[in-house]
Amino acid sequence: MINEKQLKEQWVNDYLDLYRFAKEIGDQDWQQELSTKLSNSETFVTKETHEIIQADLQQSFDEIDNEIAALYYQLNALHSQHEKEKLREQVWHLKIKRASLMQQLRAMSSDANDQFFIIRFYL
Question: Per its UniProt entry, which superkingdom is the organism in (predicted)?
Answer without folding.
Answer: Bacteria
